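Late entry, evening session. Most of the bench is empty. Finally got around to the prediction I had been postponing all week. Sequence below, unchanged from the version circulated by S.P.
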Amino acid sequence: MPATTRHVRVYRPRAKDIQPEVEAPPSPEDDGLFRVFKDVARQVYDRAKGHLDADRLLSHSMAGLIEIAASRYALDAGERWQPGMPLKLLLAGYSGTRNTGADVRVEEMIRQFRHLFGDEHVEMSILTLDLELTRGYFRTVRQLLLPKIFPRFLFDTVHAQHGVIACEGSMFKSKFANALSTMMVGALGLAAAEQKLAVGYGGEAGNMDRSLARMVRRYCQDALIITRNEASRDVLAELGVVSRPGTDTAWTFDPAPPEVGRKILMDAGWDGETPVLALCPINPFWWPVKPNVPRAMINALDDEEDDAHYGSVYFHASGADVDRRQARYIAAIAGAVRRIQAEFDVFPVMFGSEQLDRRACEALSHELGGGHPVIVSDENDMYRMVSAMRQASYMVSSRYHAIVTTMAGGVASAGITMDERIRNLMEDRGQPELALEVEDEELEEHLYETLRDLIPRATEIRDGIDRCYVQNLRRMGEMGMVLVDRVREQHPDFPFAEGLGSDGDPWAHLPSLPPAVAAIVERVGRP
């Protein structure tokens, strides 16, 4: 499982470390032996390339433990819910990387679940890749550190739960990291093997490697997947997996007060008056993350940074072609923004809503001449990030949730997309022309034309945003209805409040709405 970006290092002893009283340099023999060791390791790497597939080993291990869990169930059914007990739910997702969108959507799931189940009747735990990076998040929920090698951990942990809810948006995809999807399939599969609640909540299914598709087909047959778009339902139907329509869950998020975001930007150089143009670049070309054990071994022996190293044995795609495509993408955005600045008074601010985006943000700031504010989630939690982004008047983003979380703030936004998510969102808003493509050979010209149209039409665009917003709030409420019915199927005696479930009102299945969201509902009305 990929973890938060950290560089692997192996300590190489030096003579002064072994004999502190004598400051002598390493002997030529020792240094020579170390070079020989590295040469041997590189030969191993050259021969092992293509044979040490950590993703395949991980998926086989996970599949084997699901099969064992199914056999164990006959003798040891694990934790079972009984009336009077809190329902123990494990939330499996991508928390702990300072990915603002991933954390926001889970935060709102938790608020919705607490509303539906009642605090006294539910006991939730959530997986995190870094406890420090999720400190202060997910109130009332126990945080569990997910090991890098997670199959046995899930095997034991799911056994002690009453159910699993997979909560990552990119639930079943090979676009980013197979290990992430393997973890969620594993958690759902283990729960289903023990005839427990197994639900995917507001996720997507897309292009998958054959091995991942086989896992989903085999181990998610008894799970219920509530998707956030119809295309995902089509993918799951081909694999024989039951799904229901839904949406994302970030719509009800309440960030830090506006004055917090305003102060962040003014401290970074904003005058408080000029309309802010939020720019949210990424590196769309270095995905997917893939394991490379021999390369990790070589890196451990070399005292050098590897820019492609994601963490553990995982690496981004890299090379001259990736660098060339990324440079063209950054240059195209910068070129369009410079042309817009010649016509409109705007203040560009770079926002990195995942900590990995810092490099892209700094590159774009440099391409724009340097000195522009760079606000990144490695230094700001999700509450501060969204508050700051909502100070913008306009936005161009390659981050789906940067758009979603700022819609309630009235930010007129366009997207530059690497996959279907932003494209689907703009279709949902009735504004498909606002979705551009990262691979567009004429991206600068098309982005310039888009911004030149967006800025004068901002009020009209915000009206479309508001209509889209209330539709998605209703869908989120309908997801809650589906979840209540699913729990009732397995636990008819669970003490849900009266009026919840398929016979109820979707709006009664939402958590409390923050003021900005409630104002949209009041303007547009409930659909």
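Two things to note before I forget:
The longest helix spans residues 458-490.
The mean pLDDT is 89.
Will write this up properly tomorrow.
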